[in-house]
Structures are given as C-alpha cells and as structure tokens.
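Feature request, filed as a ticket because there's no other form

It would be nice if the structure record came with a short human-readable summary line next to the tokens. Right now we just get the raw output. Example of a typical job, pasted below so the devs can see what we mean:
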Amino acid sequence: MTQLNAARRVASPARPASLAARSPHTLDGLLLAVAVAGISLSGPLVATVAAPALAVAFWRNALAVVSLLPAVLLRAPLRRELAGLHRRTLLLSLAAGAALAAHFGLWLPSLGLTSVASSVALVTTTPVWTTVLLRLLGRRPPALVWWGTLLSFAGVLLLTGVDLAVSPRALAGDALALGGGLAGAVYVLIGAEVRRTTSTTGYTFLCYASAALLLLPAALLGGAALGGYAGGTWLKLLLLTLVSQLLGHSLLNRVVRGLGPSVTSTAILLETPGAALIAAVWLGQLPPAAAYPALLVILAGLALVIRAERTPTPPPPSPAVE
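Raw output as currently delivered:
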C-alpha cells in the first residue's frame, strides 16, 4: 500500500502540469479575442471622427501615452524596469513605435487615394509579410503556417474583393496600404522580440511614445489640424484610444509573447469581418453576403497556423556512433 501511494504521488503531478501548460495559451486566446474586437472597432469609429487621418493616428498614440503615464510614475517596479532597460531593448522598443507610426501614417491616408476594398486587402498582408520576414531572419515556418496564412488572406479577399484601379492616384494609395501592411509585420515581429524580457506596460509606453513623437511632425507637415474639434470628436478619440489602442494593440502586445508573431498577425485578419459586423450593429450598414463565409475561411486559416505553431518540432537525429 505504501508503495502504491508513493507511485500515485509521483504520477499525480503529470495532469496538473499538463493543465498548467495549456492554461496560459487559453488565457492568451481569450485576450486575443478581446484585442481583435478592440481593433475591429477602429475602422467604423474612425469613419465617424471629424478629424484628419494623421491627426487621428497621432492622438490615439499620444492619449495612450498619457493614460499609461500614471502607472509609470506611481509604480516603482515599472520605473526601475524602464530605468534599467538594456540599450538594445530600448532601441527595439523605439523602432517598434516607428513601425507602428509608419503603419498608421501609410494606411490611413491611403483610404483617401484608393478604394476602401483595395486599401483593406493590401494592408492586411501583414501576416504574409510576417511569415516572409521570419524566413528571411533564418526561421523556417512550417508549411502549415504558409497555407494557413494564405487561406486567411483569401478570406479577406473574399470579403473585400479585388478592386485595383489603374490610375496614378489609386496606385499611390495601393502602395501606401501595402507599405502599411509591411510596417505592421515589422511592428509585430519587434514586439515579439522585446516582450520576451519586457513587461507589456513598459513596452507599450515606449512604443506608443515613439509613434506619437514621429506622427506629430508628420501631421504638422501634412497640414493636419490637431485641435479645434467639437466635443463629440474628442469623445470619439478617447473611445478610440481606450478600445482600439489600449485594449486592442496593448493586448496584442501582451499575447504575442506566448502565441508568437505568426498566430498574432494572422488573427489580425479577423479585424476585417469584425469591422463589418460592428458597422452593421452600430452604423446600420448591413455586411455583404460574403462576410460570414469570409469569417469562416479566416478562422480556418487561423486554426491551421495555431496548429502548426503548437506542433512540437522534432529534435534533430542523433549522430550515429561508430
């Protein structure tokens, strides 16, 4: 009996350990769903904001920095973390902010130059660029990641359609949107690297501050008015900051550490059908008939990417002993 009880004590930790290994991914999955819902509100909300595109991009980052400032000032561990950051980590955080600024600064103006369908389809190439950049950086994503990424992107094309107009103005808008998608991939990849050693709050504070500082001169040089808005516009900017920036982007930065850049960037594709469904409920704009099958296609592609990322890579064969 004593030996049996001892065996049970030795064997019993296996199940809790397995559950503990899965629970972080379950929590990350839930937080990712909240993040996608947050960024999905961005498009419909921006469409109702009576402010220039670059001004909206600046204020959503600047207001996020202001909201994070009390935590930085009042929390001693966070102050110590920021003060003791390695130079490489600091530079990468600032670079992520530059990539985020480029993402907003390229994509939002593209909406005024090309069709919304083309802009959305091209800016959502982020997961494709993420997979390509991972390959260029020496990591070999599994074939299932490639197929899942392409399947999810096909779902976006199913919803938005292919509407590439051949005119200098439209081509310029298409190029801006494509650049915004590439910048988004760089932002996700740098975030995944920095978040390995840095807290979410510390990283997002530096990232958003860097983005705001770069977007400010861009908005001023572009002639975008940064003030003089009606009270309703300021309320919408605050809502955009709270929901799309702090809940959306900050939670993406929170989960990218555990889920990885491939899963996180592919999940961002859900923003397109999510925005369509939110616009239907909030603005009364009925989603196109393709919204629902497109959502299923994107989810199927995301499932493939998650499965590929969760499949353990077999160890290399041991050299033969002669």
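Something like this underneath would help us a lot:
The two ends are 47 Å apart (CA to CA).
The first helix runs from residue 2 to 11.
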